[in-house]
Design brief:
The complex is a heterodimer of chains A (581) and B (227). By secondary structure, chain A is α+β, with helices and mostly antiparallel strands. Chain A folds into 4 domains: 126 residues, Immunoglobulin-like (Sandwich), CATH 2.60.40.10; 126 residues, Immunoglobulin-like, CATH 2.60.40; 118 residues, Immunoglobulin-like, CATH 2.60.40; 106 residues, no CATH class. Helix content of chain A is 23%, strand content 40%. Chain A contains 9 helices and 30 strands. In chain A, β5 and β6 form a beta hairpin. The longest helix of chain A has 32 residues. Chain B is an alpha+beta fold and 227 residues long. Chain B folds into 3 domains: 93 residues, Alpha Horseshoe (Serine Threonine Protein Phosphatase 5, Tetratricopeptide repeat), CATH 1.25.40; 56 residues; 52 residues, SH3 type barrels. Chain B contains 9 helices and 5 strands. Chain B has a 5-stranded antiparallel β-sheet. In chain B, α2 packs parallel to α4, α3 packs antiparallel against α4 and α4 runs antiparallel to α5. The longest helix of chain B has 24 residues. The two termini of chain B are 29 Å apart. Classes of the chains: A alpha+beta (581), B alpha+beta (227). Chains A and B meet through β26 and α4 of A and α2, α4, α5, α6 and α8 of B.
Chain lengths: 581, 227
Amino acid sequence: MVLTLLIVFAAPAAAKTEVHARLEPEVIGIDETATFTIEVTGDSFSSLRIHPNFELDNLEIMGGPSQYEDMRFDNGHFSRTFRYSWQVRPLGLGPARVRAISAQLDDDVRQLPAQEIRVQREPTRPQQPISGAGDDDDPFQQFFGRFPNPFRREAQGPEVFLRAEIQPPQPVVGQQVLYSLYLYTREDIAALSTSGVPTFRGFWVHDIQLPQQLPTEIVELEGRRFGRVPLLRKALFPLRPGRYTVEPATVDLTVQRYDRQFFFGHPIARPEPLRLRTESQWIDVQPLPSAPPEFGGAVGQLALTAELQPRQIRLGDAATLTVRLSGTGNLQGIREPRVSPPPGVSVFPPQQESSEEISGTTLRGSRTWRYVVVADRAGRFTLDTPEIRYFDPEARRFAVASAPDLALTALPRSTGAAAAGGGAMHGIRTAALPSRALSGRRWTSLLPWLFVLPCGLALVVTLARRRAGNGKPSAAGSAGRKLAAGLRQAEKEERPRQVAARIEEAWHDFLAERWDFPVATPPSHWRSLLADRGVDPETLNEMGRLVDDLQYLRNAPQLSATGTLRDETLRRCRHLLRRLQ
Amino acid sequence: MGALLAVLLLSLSGLTAPADPEAALAEGNRRFEKDETESALEAYSRGYAGNGSAADGVLAYNAGTCALRLGRLPEALLWYRRAETATPRDPWLRDNLALTRRALGDPPAENPAWRFWLENRRSIAEAGVALAWVALGLLVAAPRLPRGLLAALALVACAAFAAGTLLERFGPRTAVLLAACPAPGGRGLPPGSEVWVRRPAAGGAWHVIGDGGGLRCPASAVGLVEP
């Protein structure tokens, strides 16, 4: 005993912990599951709880983790096992693996090798009944033998079926029939698609949109409660009497079923594909009773309204008669009602609009006809609004939709309009109107040319002037060049008095040639003479400053420093030359 | 390949070329007298070339009158609007156009904010042309005029001409809705609405601009006043 205790308490010092991972079986069918297990074994009393981590390829977790712990003391050796297990199922055919497996045990993180299995289309083991062989896993059954288990389901097919309902089953021609396809279920439905819909030959069909969230209601059938979901609704309108077959509808769906074979642990979900069909059905379309001659084929519950706007017009003006037929039923194919105008009134063929909408499960339609009504003479007229005969399937008799007659007052044309001849509806023209001017579109087509022409002419003028300037120098250009040459010579002089003399001489020649100044006009008169010739004040001021500079340079002492002033004067000269050239 | 395409386009344009306007007018009138309004409308529309000529105006007017008699009011309005571009002062046209609009219940006319510029785009281009001629005149007659003035004048002329021409070529067009143009929330436009439309770059539906902005109408529901 002492030895045992010594061993037990000495164990942590020599503690040895191993972590393993396994994924099994090695091959599974696409509809089967595998078990992924991480197992920790150790020989110490310290905790073996781990924090597992892993990633799945082509697999997804269906259940788990379930935990298992075992302690053994055999032949003086103590051992513990701690196991995590997950039920996984494949997502597709081919290899499936668990990778990046790690287990954190206190501060120790163990990396484990990836585990791989293969997924094949065929199952690897025969389908097991819900209760049966699997019961061997049940430890209670192994211990106590088989006994009735109230929680265990007996083997049976999924409780789900389709049913198509037709209402009414014996309609008359043109009456709305509602075809509804319902799914009744006591199972979880994972996926659903309608793969076959009847063709409804012999009917005009209008789809009835179902809401995004399908409305589910609970109904009781033979004492069992089912969820009922509408999958399809159509409004059918029989075109001819007779007995018509409605073919079966087919729906493919996946039912999520749960295996509760394990007494412990979570139930395992198992998807089960199914194809459901309805039975063929018949619709017995009854003919309409003997119809009155004015009957145009309208079946439903209809109402007619008529409106004349305005009710009082002047000769030449138009009123609009709006006739509107609306109600439940299919209004397609109803011809326009014939309006018989009284003498003195013209009614033009109508403009037609129609609309349809679903109200609950019933199709409501409306047809609107708008007639242009023109009075040919002044007076008070009564417009007989048309009547529309229809068959009321509820009352099983013909009825008439009508509206009260409408009064139209046509006043004589107003004096101004009569004088101008305006307001009346005119007939066609037999010849083109005389064209007095270029009409809009023709004029527009000429615009680019009319724009390009002055641009081209301006270009020609500018080029011609340039060419003339190059071949035979103009007076201004020639004078300018002479002045520029004179300024360059003045720039070479060193003494300020000679610089002033050169500049003054060059300006004399320029002003005489370009601006027709009298020869030897003194600089003091340059400003006033230029002013007489319309030169702008800024240039005149610049010229005044130049004259002052020349005066200073001419009278400057021989040895004084005038370099800066000379440069300034020459710069001013060139600036003025550009402005006066 | 390019040559083949050109030949194909030329042959297509030959196929769809309008008939001789005078012959179409005579043919339409003959059919109208025989009370064959539908075929008269076809004859008039075959002769319509959309070039703004006086014959075009009469053809469009007559086509509109036929459509009015047939009760096809939006179509009548479209033809009358087309006639209006060619012969805007025709008193008969004015009367029938007003009558058609009233018969349609005076449907809304979409007015974009820059309607003034759209409506006067031709005048803007014409102003550009006029300014170009003025600049040319000044260049010739007053050579000593400051160059900046002439340059500014030429620039304004170019800008006006370019703006007017670009709006004319690529800007929105006037149109009449031949069918209702529905939109979510009941913002749609009824048939006979007179709108400004812009074709999206990718083709297909027309964009309505103005108060009904954002509305897209199928090509079949839109009749362009100026093709």
